[in-house]
Specification:
The protein is an alpha+beta fold. The protein has a domain of 98 residues: Thiol Ester Dehydrase, Chain A. It has 4 helices and 5 strands, in the order βααααββββ. The chain has a 5-stranded antiparallel β-sheet, covered by helices on one side.
Length: 143
């Protein structure tokens, strides 16, 4: 399966992925990455922070954005070039996060797309925003 090529993309194309953050998501992410910041994994420590509870790793949400780009838009075969992220609000265990991507610019000559990236919680609050540059998949070659 191949995602949308540069010629198939349109300004305004959107895709999204939603997931509810579980405690195991946080522990698995910490184990995979080695990020054992106590704000994420230590309840007693986290109670003393401004958030008053454990929060999800910001880059876990970056992974949700990556999932949308890799699986939906542009989709399989997409290569990440860059990603900027602004972390605007904490994400807690039990929050449902929707990662959304939107094509905002297409450069056919460079074969790249600029994409608005956003994560929104179940209350409609933007918790992460940013921008990605990707190289969409190339057209499948014919035998």
């Amino acid at each position: 399966m191949v995602g949308k090529t540069i010629d198939q993309l349109k300004i305004g194309d959107k895709a999204q992925f939603a997931k509810t953050i579980s405690e195991s998501d946080i522990y698995l992410y910490a184990g995979l990455t080695g990020d054992f910041n106590p704000a994420h994994i230590n309840t007693i420590y986290a109670e003393k922070t401004p958030f008053k509870t454990r929060i999800a790793h910001g880059m876990l949400l970056g992974g949700f954005i990556s999932a949308v780009l890799a699986n939906q838009l542009p989709g399989p075969g997409t290569i990440y070039i860059s990603q900027g992220l602004n972390f605007l609000a904490p994400v807690r265990i039990g929050d449902t996060i929707t990662a959304e991507v939107e094509i905002v610019e297409i450069s056919a000559e460079k074969k790249r797309a600029r994409i608005k990236t956003t994560c929104i919680n179940q209350d409609g609050k933007v918790v992460v925003d940013g921008e990605a540059i990707v190289s969409p998949p190339r057209p499948a070659s014919k035998p």
